[in-house]
Specification:
Helix content is 46%, strand content 0%. By secondary structure, the protein is mainly alpha-helical. The chain binds zinc ion (ZN). The site of zinc ion has 9 residues, from loops.
């Protein structure tokens, strides 16, 4: 049999919020819409990779989060337009404001989580996947 060479797919690790170094340890505590406020673990419990690799590193995630929020707001704006049969009069202003405000509120835990995942997985050349750690 030899040693296993089965690698965890990058997409799986990305969607599940797994460590970019080993793709096994969890980046966050708790679930995305759980009762406890989700936090970012200091380091990976599986391989020891630090997530905030330098002080203030996650400030960069704010830009990712901002971009995600823009896309979401535009999508919600168009969705509201189509679902309300193209209403664009002054009275429907509050409909748009309400949908976009509540939608953004609802999506904020998702933005928090995926902005950091995108930063760690796609925008951090210092953190590389190492298959040697991708085993139980
Ligand atoms: Zn790890």
């Amino acid at each position: 049999m030899g040693h296993s060479t089965k690698k965890t797919p990058k997409l799986y690790a990305l969607l599940k919020g797994k460590c970019p170094h080993c793709r096994r340890g969890a980046i966050f505590t708790g679930s995305i819409y759980g009762f406890n406020i989700q936090r970012t673990n200091y380091k990976c419990a599986h391989c020891g990779q630090r997530f905030e690799i330098e002080p203030g590193y996650f400030y960069a995630a704010m830009y990712v989060s901002y971009a995600m929020n823009m896309v979401e707001m535009i999508t919600m704006g168009f969705a509201t337009y189509y679902l309300s049969d193209g209403r664009l009069d002054f009275d429907s202003l509050w409909l748009y404001v309400g949908v976009i405000f509540l939608g953004s509120l609802f999506l904020s835990p998702l933005n928090y989580r995926y902005s950091r995942i995108i930063l760690l997985h796609l925008l951090s050349p210092k953190i590389k996947y190492n298959a040697n750690f991708d085993k139980p």
